[in-house]
Prior knowledge:
Layout: E1 6-9, E2 12-15, H1 18-30, H2 33-50, H3 61-69, H4 88-103, H5 110-121, H6 126-129, H7 134-148, H8 160-169, H9 175-189, H10 199-206, H11 217-228
Antiparallel strand pairs: 1-2
Amino acid sequence: MSSIPTRVYGGVTVPDTPLVASALSYARAHMADSFYNHVVRSWLFGFAIADKLPELKERDREVHSVAAILHDLGWDCTNELVSKNDRFEVDGANAARDFLKREAGEAYDKHRLQLVWDAIALHTTTSIAWHKEPEVVATSYGIRTDFAGVHGVPNGALSQKEYDAIVKEVPRLGMKDDFKEVMCALCRTKPQTTYDNIVGDWGEKYVEGYTRVGNRTIDRLEAGLEHLG
């Protein structure tokens, strides 16, 4: 891929293209402060890690950037991008794809659009994402690191010093409490999107009256098999 403009942010060299700038502005317009900082840290962590790993160095760096920056649009604080019936990861992936169709045009063909969509839709499912294309893997590594720290991903590619420099540049701003609230809110407002994934864990622990019983994958499959005989 041809070289693109870069800048240093939090000690990490990242792309500095008009599209990346637009993605940052779009995320800023649709995200609470703590979540905006989360996606930016995820971007920086992902680059700090991926640029050290031979299998990820040749990734599409703009695709990685856009996917990381837009990966939590499903938590849109304006609710403009939030559907009634889809998982928040799918809402985010769809919103990012729509953004790219508007802002990038022909520069993002079907393949690049799919990479961004997959990176976002799969970002909570590392058991799949880490076996996908380099852009998807790199995006997931950065996001995972913001939740699990320097030991959250394989290879030990991020030092504590690098981690601390990024967090100092882009502070957490009480994300722990905001994250708990948004996960619980999803369980309250569209519980049907949470039963088969990690969001439901917050519902079971914190949301009064929430239950997966009868809605778990095993419940649905066993009921279907019983009906079929």
